Each structure stands twice: as structure tokens, then as C-alpha cells.
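Retro notes - structure team

What went well: the batch runner handled both jobs without manual restarts.
What didn't: labels got mixed up in the shared folder, which is why I'm recording both outputs here explicitly, each with its sequence directly above its C-alpha cells.

Job 1
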Amino acid sequence: MVTVEGGRAVDMSGDPKHPFSRGELCPKVNRFLDRVYSPDRVLHPLRRVGAKGEGRFERISWDEATSIIAERLHATIREAGAESILPFSDAGNQGMLAMSGISARFFHHLGASRLIRALCGPTVGAGVKMTNGSSLGFDPLDLEHSRLILLWGTNTRLTNRHLWPTIETARQRGARVVVIDPLRTITADSADEFIQPRAGTDIAMMLAMMNIIISEDLVDREWVAQHTLGFDELAAHVTEWTPERAADATGVDAAIITRLAREYATARPAAIRTLVGPEHHENGAMFFRTLACLPALTGAWRDRGGGLSRSVGSWQEQLIDDVALERPDLLAGRSPRAVNMSRLGEALTTADPIVRDVIIWNANPMVTIPNRELVREGLERDDLFCVVHDQFITDTARYADIVLPATTHIESVDVVPAWGHLWLGWNEAAIEPLGEAVSNTECFRRIAAAMGLNEPSLFDDDLTLIRDALPTVDIDALRGITTFASPIRRMGSPGPTGTSRPRVVASSSPAINSKHSATRASPTISHPTRDRPDHSPTASHSNFSPRNTTSDSSTRATPTSRDTATGKASPSSRCTKTTPANAASPTTIKPRSTTTAERCCSPFGSPIGSDPAPSSSPGDGSPTSTPTAAWPTASPTTP
């Protein structure tokens, strides 16, 4: 909540009625108002007057800036084609409109190159999906029902602090908390046990745990038989990964690995909680792919508070109608190339056709994208026209020809999906934009107008965009009505019947209406997308069954050249071109002809959405029944 006095935000505090945060801000936003009112904010359009990278600009008007941009984009389309224009954005302002509002429609209408936003989150999605057929996990608040909680590669007390009270509730009920992390963190210091493998060797430990679970017959045979494929292959594969071998790789005593495996397989409910740390490293996809095998082996998904819990953004995304929001129909049959954002440096230096114009918003790629020096080399090109829409002169903005002023969260309306809980958030503008700053949606409306474009959807207002994108959500309720109902799916894994049982959930909104004292909620949270089932979690078969899961070309596996178990260099090439047998698709033990790893290797790959659908039968040609997990049977050196 933001308190406003005389049009100026003077205080920001957590909403005590929020069902998850309960009034506590995370450290990142405790001083957010310092950012809003920083003397370094960009408040007016700027034009570069110095050398690229020097950071010298002069103030110009919005009309001048958009006219320059429009003239250049028209020239590029006329002379080289729209594919020579590259959009680049990420999650600077983490709102639905900020990340994908008018911008997607604008570039689709032009026919510009498309950006595959697959830097970190899709890595874990790819890994979990290859095992489960879906990237969904269970509601982290169900950890209160767990009796064993493995916090694997997450510093929960610091980076997910709002969840810690839930974990403490579980401990008060008798749960044991084990932290597995190469770093000793404040979470490790608060755990019942801390296990510290060497960096990059977690997968060896997972394989050894599976070795013990299988060799000592701690497997939930009934669950495995009904809901998985490839168990025999997995069992054969992990035979060589004894606790002793894993101990050599990880530095963790074999007896500790053995004891943990036994405890994990026998405790009910047993939960694994992980977050974004591992996916930011080499072999991140394999980390999650292997980790997801553990709850399937033990049948942990049977229990409420059992299974694998990670970011819940994939649940939130199911509310959003991407087609209505982004309007891919505006491509009008065109199929422009797709550029993987992690290969920006190559795109700016070696792409054919060459990138002539790049428009960057919601991102600072000079800091966040691999191969910084190659990105710098590309941005330094004299023939590259670069536009940056940002709140500050960032490392990237220093190379821009035109810099446009952007609003912060408290200056524009948006809807904010969450990663750590299942409530959708309404973000009301608390103050008017400072200076001449505009939101991401308004920025692209102005550029579209300057270009003389007449596609009506490029000029939809923000509320229209929100209503189009959230067709199943009562927007008026989301904005402030105190009580409403929302049908949602049950959380968890595939149930024995493979059917979904939706429930209607009523929730009291913690939204705080604007008061005469000028205290506004920004954001207010009022739409629950979570369900608290009364017993073991069950999700629809269509959610988790690989048979019904199509490959998503925006999800890219991470190529590897290092042994994922030992961290040592692998003799394989930097970008492996094939997927191992039994692992290419969650539904089959045959490799596909076009693989996720292969498609990851080229920064200028096939258009988004063109990945082939997975096979509907196992490798022997017999029809599948109700598969819900596929075991990775490749060596840990293979992505």
C-alpha cells in the first residue's frame, strides 16, 4: 500500500490483509520509493549526442522522439524487411501489461523478429516437464501439512521469506526441515539438518538417493505402475550411482546420502521445495528433471503436502489468454524468425538478415544476458539503431540512440501474477507519472501513432487489454469488490482417475479502497487462483499427462558441456544436438527427430509454436494409458 500526500508518495507498506505476505514487504521493495524519486530517474525523452556507450544525451520532446523512431522503422521495413527489427524485453516491471501488452501486438503487426524469452524460468519448466509432462507443482502453502521438507537449492528465509512461517507451522506439527545447498545460508542455519554438496554436483546426490530407494524396495510400486513410464530403464541407470560414488562427487558422506534417501522414501507427506537458483546455472534443466523423479518414485504426490513445489507462475499463467493479449493473428500468415534472448550478442553481430533496429524495454541486457562483451560489440555498431524505454540510464541505455522515460509500478495500472503464491494482484496507480514518463503500453501506442498505423488493437486502453487477457476473471471484483468466487483446478499431481474436480472458492479481498486520507492500495490483491483441497492433491489428467502436453518452443533446454553429476568437463560438444533415448518426450522412450536441445542451439531458430507435438505412444508402438511421469535414463552428462 502506498500513502500519498499532496500527490507525492510518502510511504509504502505491506497490506496486512494480504493472505500470503500478511503486511510484510520483502527487502527488495522496502525502499522502493527511493527508486521512484531518485534524482537519476529518466523523466523526459533523450537523444544521444555522444559516442555510443558514453552516456551523453540531450532532452527532446516526445513528438521528436517518436518521429525519429517512426521514420527509422519505416525505412528499415522498406529497405530490409521487418525481420531486421528486433524487440527485446524481459521482466523489469513484472506486470502482465508491462511484460506483454501493446508491445506484442505492435511487433506482430509489423512482422518483426520474435523474441524467445527463455533465460531462466523456462529452463526449470523444460526440466520438470520432461519428467512430469507439465511444469506445475503443488501449492507451497501446503507445506504446512508436510512431515519432511527438503529445501533444495533455495535460501527460503531470505528470498522467499513469506513462506517461512508456513514451514515453521509444519515444524511445530513435527516436520523435519533439511536444507541442501552448496552455500551455508541463513536458511541452512535455521534447518534441522544442513547438507552441503559441492557446487554443481546435486544431480549425483539425487541419483544416489534413487539408487537406495530402488535397491531397498522403498518404491511406491502401485503409484509407479499406474502413473509412470520407463521405470526399468531408470532403475538400470542409477545402479552405477552408488552412495559411495556420489560421495566422491559431492563431498557428502555416503551414510548421510543413504539415510536421507530412506527418510525421504518413508516419511509421509514428504515435500521438496526448490526455487530459481539452480536454473541460473549450467545444467539447470537436468537438475529439475532429475529432482522431479524422486516424488514419482515414492508416490509422494499421493499426499497433501507431498511432491515437488517450485514457482507457481505456471498456475497463474493459465488465467491469461495470451492469444487475446498478444494477438498473433496480426502476423497475418507471416512467420518471422525467432531469436533466443540468451543469444542476443550473436543476434546483434552475426544474424542474417542483420538486425538493423533493436527496441529494448523492461530489460537491461548488458547486465542480464550472457556474453556481455559480444552484446556490447553489437550495441556499439554504428549502423544499429537502438531505442531504450527505461527508468534510468542503465548500462544498456548508454548505447541507445533514443531513450524514453518509463513509469514505475506505482505510476501505472497493471495486473501482477505471482511466482510464490496463488493470488492474482491488482496494481492500481498510486500517483501520476513523474515528468513525461509513460507506461510500456502507452509507449507503444505513441510509436504506433507516430508510424501512422491504423490497426485498432494497437490503441486499446489498459482496462480493455486486461479484460481481454483475463476472460475468466471478474475484473471489477479484482479491482476492489470484497467477496467473489472463482472456479479453479485442484492442486497436485495426476490422480488415479486422471480427472479434475474443480471447486468454487470464495475469498475475502484484502483490497483497500482509496480513502479520503489519500491512502491507496498499490497493489491490491483480490483474486485467488489457489485451492486448498481437503485431502491428497489431484489435478486433471490433461494438466499432467504427457500425452496431452504439447512441446512449447519457448521452453528451451540448457545445452551442456559439463558432467552434471561431478561438475567436470564433458567430452560432448557445447551444444548437444540430440536428446537421449527414453528422454526426448515424456510420452515415449524414443528420441524425437527435432529435439529441445537442438532447437536451443540456434539463436535464430524456428518460429515460436512450431515444435512438433510429442508422440502419443511409447516406443514399442502400443497405446499409452495414463502416463504421468517419464524417467530420464540418459547419463547425467546429457542435457
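Job 2
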Amino acid sequence: MYKKFLPPSFLLLLASVMFIGSNPATAQRIAPVFGQINKNEILYQECDFDKGAEAVVLFDIGDSHFVENVIDSRFVSDFPDFNVLFKRHTRIKILKPGGEKYAVVEIPLYTSDNTIEKVENIQITTHNIINNEIISTPIEDIKFRKEKINKNWEVKKFVIPDVKPGTIIEYEYSVNSNYLTSLHDWKFQKDIPVVYSQYTVALIPYFEYNFLLQGIDKFDSKYTEQDPTENTWKGRNYHNMLYTFIMKDLPGFNGEEYITSKEDYIMKMNLQLARILYLNGGKKNFLSTWGEIKDLLLKHENFGLYMNKAKEISIPELNPESMANFSDQQKFDTIMNYVKSHFKWNKATSILTSKGASKVFSDKYGNSAELNLLCIGLLNKYGISAVPLVSSTKENGLIHMEFPLLNDLNNVLILAKVDSANIVTDATNPLILNNRIPLNCINDKAIVVDNNEQVKTVELYYASPVTHLVEINSEINNDKTTSQVTHRFAEYEAMEKQRTFGKDVASLLKSINKAGYEIDNKSLVIKNMNKAQDEYSYSFQTNVKTEAIDNKLYVQPTLSECLNVNPLKQKVWRYPIDMSYSNKTDYSCHLKIPAGYIVTHLPENTIINDEKFQLSYTTTTKGNEIDVHFSYWFKKPIYNASDYETIKSAFQYIIDFGKERIELQRQ
């Protein structure tokens, strides 16, 4: 969750953000010289506040300040004379084998039609101790690899070669940018521990920025001071105001399986432009309200006007006379299925269209905004009330309602009213039911874009459980147990399995082949999803050695098909546990007892049931057959951080009951 504070020179500091003084003795500012390694860094062997760390950031120092615009005069803005220059100087030490993967320089760059960002003054050096001497090796040939993150962001990456435990890597660079709406954010926390992090922002009197803090309760030190250097712009003299923030001894960010996005919780600072103050006394506000953003979108050519034009498209397959006799549910499903089957999603998410409705209709493909706004237009045309939802996908992070930022949004969904029920839906994936949205879109909430003055949101989590069924039929013999195993997945779980494996027999066999299994490869049968209602399933036959001690046999009904490692491992956890949807797993195990044996021990029948979690383990016997039913259900799609130990214990129950064994005695 972001917190906000405003620079004291412009506005008051919010009391929710605490500082441990501004005394240099608390956490003194440092200004290391590039290439000068000190004795303490050489002797540094282990991070005392994060002892398992494979590498450590010795320091990470950044600075953002305004400079004269000399990059490109083509771009005209309110203040074309200014750019922002961001500088970074970082030193990292590799502590253990495996830490080499952190020897990477990553430089994020913002791109748009009227924005240019240029990397300057890059230096990279490695320092190694050889024969008690520091050998520094500058990297001469630096060739970055570009990775496109989304429409507006790319990352330039360089993997530093020839590093090993004990190596200190050091780099510095600058980014010169004419993008003033949002200054370069600063992540105090990283995947590995950080000994010292310092960020300085030098602001001129013509721009006011909001400082947004995430995951930060206090700084080790904060300094606010006037730069003694006097500057002149258009005949006006001014001084920069300097804001320096310091944090020390930050443990590495330990993300786990059930966290939405590291970017939503890592300790960081972002600066958003609030207003510009002009020399003539005028001003221009940049921060909007969500109501203003709604109005902007509804009047926008690539949003609201596109949606209105979609209503005018004539589609022979959607005959008005035939549709007139349909119920609301039939109309809704017919239109949703038509768009899903006739238009292909181009894999891009956006809140704006990039081409007109008629062009999308003729091309038969488009981004998420183009397909969903087209669908909304058609739904309204045929009498189904539908409005857009603007949202943020999981990889884009959470929407921060307290700070209306258009950049927080990257996707459009559909809110339709069908027979008095509100349905959140999406037209990009034909394998998703018409009352569901893609898994990566299930991310907290979406904002309703309608003509209502009140800003409304819709929760995007699903409480209905998605079920995974496992059937295991086993025949026990003295030396081996032969089992037929079937897994059946529905909805999101089915789509994930189909995306991961599909009909790839080799990959699936590698995944399901557990220690002790002797799988008959020819027995593997895979059933793919062909439509939204289908399951994804696979079945196989395996032999497992039967554990025999004296005259007794021991059999594990679930074999190795159950969870065996707890995904929650942390002692302390500060973040929500996000499962996206309620999920339930059901094991049905049938075992045939070999002749001459009787049952001498069965696991105890157990039921655990509360508002968060349910587990049931029951056994029944009839003649020479045993039936074991084991199921567990995480009832909520998301749990509070305070539930961490409870959910961690629930996973341990699953592991323990999955290991339960049946004892058979020879008569």
C-alpha cells in the first residue's frame, strides 16, 4: 500500500511517515568514489541481518535532479527547457555460490510517442582479491540486451561476466529523461539484502511532486536542505531544495508463491507530478480524481467514442429479430460467444484502443480494450446493460485508489447486468466461461467507468471453489502396488495445465514421474480443453514398491500425488496471501487388499472445518477393499497477512495427511 507525503517546502509532511531524526550521526550520508574499495568491503563475508543471503548490496546510491534539456528539441512540453537526470552508483558483493545470478545491471526506460530517455556515462567494474591484492577489471565492451515489458516500459540488461563468491561488482550510470510526470522511482529493498540505500531528489521551485511511499514505516535518516548553489532561469534566480532519504540493513524481499506481485509490497518511493507553477503566477494541476479520469475516458476517441461506434456495426450473425425473442442470459451468452469465436486477442492489454471499431471488425483481432469495448457496444445494442471496467493485471500491480494515476491502469474488462445479476467478464479468451475473467486479471479491484458521479469499484476475486479431482485405484501385492492415477482439472487450473503441458507427453511425464514410480509411459492419456466447459485431464499407470516389514505391508493411499513441501516458509510475513480464487482438491482412493492379509491400522477419520479452511479424511472398508476420501478446501481467494500462520498450518495438515499409511497384517 502506498503512503503519501509532500515535501515540507511545498506542503506538510503526513504524520503517518516517521523519521528517526535528521542527525548525520544516525545514518551519515556517504559519497563513495567509483573504483575505491575499502577494507571492510573486502572482509565482508556474511550478511549478519540476512545470514542465508547469496549476495549483498553494499550500497545503492541514487540522485535525481533537473538539468537543461539538450537531448532532443522536437518534444515540446510545459517546461521544454528542463530534463531530469537520474544517477545511480551501486556496489554488490557475491557471498556464496548461487549469488552470481545477481551480477546483472538492469536499467528500466520509459518510452512513448513524446518521451525520450537516454542512458549515459555507464561504467561497470569487477573487483577480485588475488594474492592479497585487489584486481579491478573494467568491462570494456558493454552490450545491453533489450527486453520489452509493456507498451511503455523496456529494460536494458547486461550480465556481468567472470564473477564468483568474493567478487565485488560495481556500476554507475545516468538516465537523461524529458519525462517529468513521474520521476525515477527508488527501490530501497531488493531480492538480496541491502546494507545502505540513499536517494536524493533535488527539486526546483517550478514543480511540485507528491512523494509516494510503499512498505516504509520509517527512514533511518532524512535530510531537507537548500542547495547553496544559485541557479538562473529566464532571468529568475532560484535554489534547489534537496531531499535525502536513507535506509540501512534491509533484508532481501522474500516473495512466496501466493503473493500477487513483488512490486506491490517491496519498500520503494515514487514521485508523481502534482502541479506546475508558472513565472506569471499561474499554475497547472496534474493529479486528477478518479471521477475526472472516468470523464476523460468516456469522451476519449479510443475508449468511450470507440464503444459508441461499436454499437453501430451491423452483424448478420446477430439478427435483431431472432435476438428479440432471447432471454437476457441467451443474448449475453450469444454475444460473448460470438466475439470470442470470431475475434482473436493479440495478447496485448490496454485501456485504450489503437484502431477504430470498423477496423477491428474487419481485422478480426485486437487488444483487450478493442475486444472488450466492442463487446460492450454490442451488448448495449441488444438491450444488455454493460459498462467498462478499467483495471490492472497482476504483473502491472495494484490500483492505488487513494492516488488516482492513469498509469496504474492497463486493462479493460466488462461489467454486464444479466437478469438483475452483475457479471464481470472478458472477451479475450474462448476457453474461459462467460462469467469469468482471465487469471492474470484477478487482481484486487476494478473501477466502473460510467456516467455516475460516484466512483464505484468491483472486487475481482472469486469465492466459488475451483476443484481438482484425483482418483487413485490401487491393487496391493507383496512386492509392488499397481495404481491407475487420474487427475482432472477445471477452469483456471485446467487452463494452466493446458498452457504448461497441452499434449506434450514428454514434458508431462517428466513432471509426474516421482521418486519410486515405475510409470508405463504408454499408459499416459491426455485430454485437452476444447471449449470453456471442458476439463483438462490425464491418467497413467504406475508401479510402486510395497513396503514390507516382517509380516506387515504399509501402503500410502495417495502415493506421491499429494503436496509434500509447504509453500509458506517464512517465520514473519507482512503481505496478503493471494490465491486468486477459492480452491478445493479431492482425492478418491480405492485399494484392493491382497489375499491372506487383514487391515490392522487405518488413519483416524478427521474433519477440520472453520471459516478459512476445511479438511476431511475418512476411510471405510468392505470385504477386501478400502476406500479413502481425502479433501481440503481453501475457502477464501485471499487471506490477510495475520492469517499467515493459520494457512501455513493448513498446508502442513495437507502434507501430514497425504503421508498417512495403511497397515496390513498377514494372517
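One thing worth noting from job 2: Residues 1-25, 71-76 have pLDDT under 50 and may be disordered.
We'll revisit the folder naming next retro.
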